[in-house]
Design brief:
Length: about 280
Amino acid sequence: MSGFWEPFGFEFFRNGLTVAVLAGALCGLVGTFVVLRGMSYLGHGLSHAVFGGAALGSVVGVGYYVAAGVWGLASALVIGRVARRGVLRADAVIGVVTTASFAAGVAALSRWGQARRGLDAVLFGSILGVSRADVIAVGIIAVGVVVVVAATYRALLFATFDPEVARAAGARVDRLDDLTMVLLALAVLGTMRVIGAVLVSAALVVPAATTRLLTDRFGPMLVGSTIVGALVGGLGMLASYHLDVPPGAAITLLGAAVFVGATVARSVADSRPNRPQT
């Protein structure tokens, strides 16, 4: 049993565990909107855009959260604005913007090789190397997102399930769409240092998809997805230490296992015959 508590004696593990829980909760919360709005591909695409911003920022000497944050937010808003014009579908716009951003990052790294140092962590995650500053930054992002979602809960609920009726009722759906894009970009920004660009889409989708199998109500899904994301992040971090596997992979595989369990539970529940009314 003492071996179980061993990693808690290391500061790097405590920092990593804290960030894993915060990032998991953040992705679970924002992932609810991603799943219900059918925006799963957008989360994957924005991770590539944020990588481009991080790479370019490293070349010019700008910090990760500033460079990647500005680039990611700008990409999210551009995608939303262009897609709303109706000339191109959202997936086409995502493909152009995010691949161009990723290519810009790759080109910058190829031209200035010395900037490559540390950016592997952006692609594949580096939860074991997070600093106290990363913990604070991800914490601020998470708290900010929670406050915004709480303040706009009813409007976001309306716009998510029936945007046309919401627009007819006077809701500013376009601005709510922009807000959702900003929240998604912030979730990607806070999570990429933990899981990396390659696996961030799983962190956004899996907790919400799992909870969606267990409830049809928006409120419980929002809370449940946040809890599932936090638990998977924390337990995945513990598993990565004791099994000696990369944290990003451990978190993703644990999340997938939880999703499979929820799928089986839902199938069993649906297969049970309804009791006759008396």
